[in-house]
Write a structure and sequence with these properties.
It is a single chain. With 507 residues, this protein is of the alpha+beta class. The chain is 55% helix and 12% strand. The protein is built from 17 helices and 14 strands. Strand 10 and strand 11 form a beta hairpin. It is elongated and about 115 Å long. The two termini are 60 Å apart. 22% of the residues are buried.
């Protein structure tokens, strides 16, 4: 039997993977993403150097983690910050080159009668037959239609629509994007034909002509469009913007607008205040509940402690999004069980989703239900670590249970649990799932020009500006995201300092 040479197999596999990666990088470059291709090439070079240099052997274990941090944390953060300095929005999605190419592709009818289209099946392909009012006809060869492959076809005189199976109207509608990509040269007619309606082609000429100074001239109206790199639009002489716009750098404009615009500042300050209050109250309530339950469950004389622990831990075991959706149904104003019970006992039906104060209370109730088991587990572990000698000494001194709680238990667990409380505050500061699934930020502010609600926190407010606003202002949303990132980073620094202090105290 021959021994398997695993080293040779590994080298061969490495060469194959490297060639595949180089092919992928080349494909990314050809797709028009040179910077992304450069990053991929740098990654390949670093990988090759690391795994071929013997002295860097130890770094091979850290390398996957470092790459993951760079790709999934550093790059998205930097990219988001970069967008915050642009006018990126639904009106300014394209680059300048693509916006210019879009306008140059526009056509207009240049005179002449339209020709009626008949589309025939030819197996898996299609044949186009065009007819004029006098009965003249022209047809194409059998072709495959694809919207992403513009084609120029030269037609041949003749053709009979009755000689084949016509494509039904429903399928013809589905093929419209592919038909729009066709340019037809008709014998005897100098102007090429383009699709101008559902079932007809008409003579088409370029709508714009590019001048030597970079401006575009509208051949129909004579207007001259000039690119404005301050606003990100081509503009007429009268200053009117022409869609589509293009992305440009706007510097600190989004940040200045964030703090200087009254229409943004008012809802932003209210959302920020509620975000801090929501995160702070959630941490306070969950800690108080968790600490109280942990204290009770630490009582040695309590029977069935294990059963109670399992039952109280269940809210943490159920996936959060399922619990939130269940609570959304329970708090339903018309059919929810909570309102049914309240109506039966007190004759009231609170408007949980339309009243701002009740909506905020509902969020705190649900979030406390989801968060208290975590605090309970932490407090249970910390209480167990307190030496029993302290309680024995306090019993000899005649201390009450309240004195034990406030002078021994609570002071001894506050220091080690403080970093975890700050981490919980940072988590709830960005608790997008709860807001999105339970209230979606509503009820909305009535005096805000941007989508913002009384239960929105900063992250959900940012999401609504980016994806639910009619302008979809990604640049402004990225600016807000940058501020959130800095706030969370500050909390992380405080957390690390507290952990360092705790570690020094233990020594």
């Amino acid at each position: 039997m021959y021994a398997i040479d695993w080293r040779r197999i590994g080298k061969t596999a490495g060469v194959v993977l490297t060639l595949l990666a180089l092919w992928l990088v080349f494909g990314i470059y050809r797709a028009g993403h040179p910077w992304l291709a450069s990053g991929g090439l740098a990654f390949l070079a670093a990988s090759a150097a690391l795994f071929s240099w013997q002295r860097a052997y130890a770094w091979r274990y850290l390398y996957p983690g470092i790459v993951a941090i760079l790709v999934f944390i550093v790059f998205p953060a930097l990219y988001t910050m970069r967008i915050g300095f642009t006018n990126y929005s639904s009106s300014n999605l394209l680059s300048f080159e693509r916006a210019t190419a879009y306008l140059m592709d526009q056509t207009c009818t240049s005179g002449g009668d339209p020709l009626k289209l008949q589309l025939l099946h030819r197996g898996q392909r299609f044949e186009l037959v065009l007819q004029n009012e006098e009965g003249g006809a022209w047809h194409s060869a059998a072709i495959a239609l694809a919207a992403d492959k513009p084609q120029t076809l030269s037609l041949t005189a003749g053709g009979d629509p009755a000689a084949g199976e016509q494509v039904p109207l429903r399928d013809l509608i589905a093929l419209q994007p592919a038909l729009r990509s066709l340019t037809l040269n008709v014998p005897g007619l100098a102007t090429p034909y383009r699709l101008n309606s559902l079932t007809s082609f008409a003579p088409a000429a370029p709508l714009y002509r590019r001048n030597t100074d970079g401006s575009l001239k509208n051949l129909q109206t004579g207007d001259v469009l000039r690119p404005n790199f301050q606003t990100g639009f081509y503009q007429t002489a009268a200053g009117a913007n022409v869609q589509p716009g293009f992305r440009v750098d706007v510097g600190w404009k989004n940040f200045v607008r964030l703090f200087g615009s009254a229409e943004l500042q008012a809802p932003l300050m209210r959302v920020f205040a509620w975000t801090v209050l929501f995160a702070g109250l959630t941490v306070l309530i969950t800690f108080c509940i968790g600490f109280a339950l942990a204290t009770v469950l630490s009582w040695e004389a309590l029977r069935m402690r294990t059963t109670y622990r399992v039952l109280l831990f269940l809210p943490y075991a159920v996936p959060g999004f399922i619990s939130i959706l269940i609570f959304r149904g329970l708090f339903n104003e018309n059919f929810g069980e909570i309102n049914m019970v309240l109506h039966a006992l007190f004759g009231i039906r609170p408007n949980w989703f339309s009243d701002p104060l009740l909506a905020k209370s509902m969020l705190l109730i649900v979030n406390s239900w989801l968060g208290y088991p975590y605090m309970m587990l932490l407090c249970l572990g910390l209480i167990k670590s307190i030496p029993s000698d302290l309680y024995e000494a306090s019993a000899i001194a005649g201390a009450t249970a309240w004195q034990n709680l406030t002078r021994i238990t609570l002071p001894l667990i506050l220091k080690p649990i403080m970093p975890l409380l700050i981490a919980s505050f940072a988590f709830n500061f960005n608790n997008f799932v709860l807001i999105s699934l339970l209230t979606d930020g509503r009820p909305d502010f009535t005096d805000s020009l941007v989508p913002a609600g009384t239960t929105d926190i900063l992250v959900s407010y940012t999401y609504r500006i980016a994806f639910q606003d009619s302008g979809q202002n990604f640049g402004l949303a990225a600016a807000i995201s940058t501020l959130i990132f800095l706030l969370v980073a500050l909390l992380s620094v405080v957390n690390l300092k507290l952990m360092r202090v705790n570690a020094q105290d233990k020594r």
